[in-house]
Amino acid sequence: MTEEIIIAGFGGQGVLSMGKILAYSGIMQDQEVAWMPSYGPEMRGGTANVTVILSDARISSPVLTRYDTAIILNQQSMDKFENAVKPGGMLLYDPNGITRPPARDDIAIYKIEATRLAAEAGNPKSFNMIVLGAFLKVKPIVILDNVEKGLAKSLPARHHHLIPVNIEAIQSGMNHVEKS
């Protein structure tokens, strides 16, 4: 099994940390992992994306132009990466801020209203974990126990008290993802 993923959105949406947690979760599952972030000089508001590869076999290169899955969190990323999903692949997106939803018919398309769910929960910072939960519901490539271990590995110790809140957000995403 090899899963090649691009996660793309604005800086500040937790794109890189979502990829990092997914990568650590794969490590906890004894998978080969590649994590390659890409972002502009802006801290928040600029575009950011991360490539994550999880595999049972050795990974030859983290540089990809086609992906099994694209997780898209803004229109700029939709414009850039929608056509980079391999036929038969999957695209997951948050419709907030998307002016042109994906239109391909050769891939599976899912949406998660993570912005709305995070606001309703009173925790806007849980946005990226809701999106991660939606992805893991559709493609359970790592188990939730390993995601919890991945959270513990990627979060500083002073934030470990937030792990249950993050797990709750992941479960919310799992419960609310919709096929488009």
Protein model, in words:
The model has no long low-confidence stretch (mean pLDDT 93). The longest helix has 14 residues, at 15-28. The protein has helices at residues 15-28, 75-81, 114-120, 127-138, 144-154, 163-176, and strands spanning 2-10, 32-39, 47-55, 67-72, 85-93, 108-111, 178-179. With 180 residues, it is α/β, with parallel strands linked by helices. A seven-stranded mixed β-sheet has the order 2-3-1-4-5-6-7, with helices on both faces. It has one domain: 3-Layer(aba) Sandwich (Pyruvate-ferredoxin Oxidoreductase, domain 3), CATH 3.40.920.10. A hairpin with a 7-residue loop joins strand 2 (32-39) and strand 3 (47-55). Helix 3 (114-120) packs across helix 4 (127-138). 36% of the residues lie in helices and 26% in strands.
The name CATH uses for the topology is: Pyruvate-ferredoxin Oxidoreductase, domain 3
Helical residue percent band: 25-40%
Query: H/E element string?
Result: EHEEEHEEHHHHE
Percent of residues in beta strands: 25-35%
Shape: globular
The radius of gyration is 15 Å
Q: Mean pLDDT across all residues, rounded? A: 93
How many E strands? 7
How far the N terminus sits from the C terminus, by CA atoms, comes to 25 Å
Largest sheet: 7 strands, mixed
Tell me which oligomeric state these chains represent. single chain
Q: Domain count, please report it.
A: 1
User: Regarding CATH, which class?
Assistant: Alpha Beta
Across the major sheet, the strand order is 2-3-1-4-5-6-7
**Helix-strand makeup class:** alpha/beta
List unreliable stretches of 5+ residues.
none
The helix tally amounts to 6
